[in-house]
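Hi Prof. W.,

I finally got the Ribosomal protein uS12 methylthiotransferase RimO prediction working! I wasn't sure whether to trim anything, so I left the full sequence exactly as given:
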Amino acid sequence: MSTNPPDLRPDIAPTAHLSETRRDGQPMIGMVSLGCPKALVDSERILTRLRAEGYGVSPDYSGADAVIVNTCGFLDSAKAESLDAIGEALSENGRVIVTGCLGAEPEYITGVHPRVMAVTGPHQYEQVLDAVHAAVPPAPDPFIDLLPAQAVSLTPRHYSYLKISEGCNHKCKFCIIPDMRGRLASRPAHAVMREAERLVDSGVKELLVISQDTSAYGVDIKHTEADGHRAHITDLARDLGSLGAWVRLHYVYPYPHVRQLIPLMADGLVLPYLDIPFQHAHPDTLKRMARPAAASKTLDEITAWRAVCPDITLRSTFIVGYPGETEAEFETLLDWLDEAQLDRVGCFQYENVAGARSNALPDHVPEEIKQDRWDRFMARAQAISEAKLAAKVGRRMEVIVDEVDAEAATCRTKADAPEIDGNLFVDEGFEGLSVGDIVTVEVEEAGEYDLWGRVV
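And this is what came out:
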């Protein structure tokens, strides 16, 4: 049992959960999945395809005939982490196939690790399968494997990520994701709903909607309607809310039409939770980022959202130390944070990323100043979080159980996304709880990021 750390990077997905028993003669593939939840969904799709062809999934290097490393290229530190993971897989197993965002730069990978067997880019599922076939030929059992595939999940059975689109049309100067993953490409709404229905039918209690820009869902396909489902985020949220599971929205840009989602939250169709990448608050900093510079209007929007749905939880991430950020601009960010009173806040220090336009900006901030600003920002965010959680003591609320061990049940409220927000711990009378249960608790104690309570 651990409490929530305050400095999680925004490009890290929850830890993959793998376990499978090998049948005699079955080829086994290992998977190392790095990067964001969107990459985790890609890993699930790859393994689902392989599982349908008779491959097993190995939870360790020693049991795998080859290992796929799904990489991240969000930041230079993430690239270094990906290269380290490739090196570890080569050392421990020796037969390694690389895919994912960093795979868009194959020479960068092979220049460091020339022994990799193949390199493919993000969501190039067919190329990954071809590479696996070449490295480890399939050997399906016709009585077991050649059946409709049950999806391989890398998350616990009670929640699942639901990716509704790929790519992004924004041109933020610090980000190279559109260069690696392309422009916005939305999935048809009826296909998203079919997947969501299958997940709920299989026991999933919480759907975490993800994309690069959830608010823009359907713009590229002109909000097409098919099979009774329209490709617009408001319509999709309403349709998903009809399935009876918790529906949590991530990566929602604060476009004006987002206000149409708030009544759905007030009515209980989707969780009263918005994950919005504000990134900064000073208009000059936002302009240098090539992001909309309307922080004051954003405060008005937040006030309007809370008027409709007082229990709404707002989560965001910010960058400190962006090139040219002055002390006055940073102080504006702190003042904005005080006024916005966001519930969940993540922050990371600016890093140059190869290919990002922000690298060429003047007046880069020294590392020691970035660290100082990060410390001050997180202290301010922590104080806000602590006060907001203290106000929940004595309240009753629904929680979902994520883990039960000898010490406690680790749960989450509707205000908490898995592994990036806080937890609610039940450390007495939890013996009858099981993972995936949704129960009512009374909050008895609050910390900086987590709550403690009892089942009622």
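The CA atoms of residues 321 and 369 lie 7 Å apart. Does that look reasonable to you?

Thanks,
D.
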